[in-house]
Amino acid sequence: MLCCLRWFMVGTRTRKRPDTSKRPGYITAEGYRRLEEEASYLWTVKRPRVAKAVAVAAAEGDRSENAEYIYRKKQLAEIDRRLRFLGNRLDVLTIVSDKPKEDGRIYFGCFVTVETQDGEEKRYRIVGPDEWDADKGEISMDSPVARALMGKEEGDEVLIRRPKGDLKLAIIQVSIDP
């Protein structure tokens, strides 16, 4: 009975987000370099530091009630999990190093300046889903805004349907350089 229950529980688990670790995708050269630097930092700096902390905590005695040991082991597992993910992703990503065509249309890697219906100007760069950073104005090519912008050109208006209401954007400028 316990065997069947365990199979049932494992069989019905679902992931909170889809596993993209093996799915091929596009990335800019800068984004690829940032992921490589993160992996290098985790492997050469952070992991050895945490592994040493695990050894120190283990030397303190009883590990079953040692909070520092338990915390550091979990931290080490998180670092290893991230390293595995980065290794898998870096293997399947395609680096797009060619500059987009400069024909006024929006392509992967372009910088786009848009004006919202409120008159606010925003500048985006369309990048791969593994490298987007909203603070830097980088949006994923899979995002609704980027999908609506792709292939359009200066002077076009796009309508983006959102749960909180439609958003109309006017494309002011398209460039391949920052």
Question: Can you describe this structure?
Answer:
Helices cover 40% and strands 21% of the residues. With 178 residues, it is an alpha/beta fold. The protein has two domains: 20-96, Helix Hairpins (Orthogonal Bundle), CATH 1.10.287; 111-175, Transcription elongation factor, GreA/GreB, C-terminal domain (Chitinase A, domain 3, Roll), CATH 3.10.50.30. Strands 5-4-3-7-6 form a five-stranded mixed sheet. A two-stranded parallel ribbon has the order 1-2. A hairpin with a 6-residue loop joins strand 6 (157-160) and strand 7. Helix 2 (29-58) packs antiparallel against helix 3 (67-92).
Which helices and strands occur, and which strands form pairs?
Layout: H1 2-11, E1 25-28, H2 29-58, H3 67-92, E2 93-96, E3 111-116, E4 121-127, E5 138-140, H4 144-149, E6 157-160, E7 167-175
Parallel strand pairs: 1-2, 4-5
Antiparallel strand pairs: 3-4, 3-7, 6-7
Spatial shape? elongated
Strand order of the largest sheet: 5-4-3-7-6
How many beta strands in the DSSP annotation? 7
The CATH architecture category of the largest domain equals Orthogonal Bundle
Largest sheet: 5 strands, mixed
Q: Helix/strand/pairing class, anyone?
A: alpha/beta
What is the H/E order? HEHHEEEEHEE
What is the average per-residue confidence, as pLDDT, rounded to a whole number?
85
Fraction of residues in β-strands? 15-25%
The poorly predicted ranges are 1-16
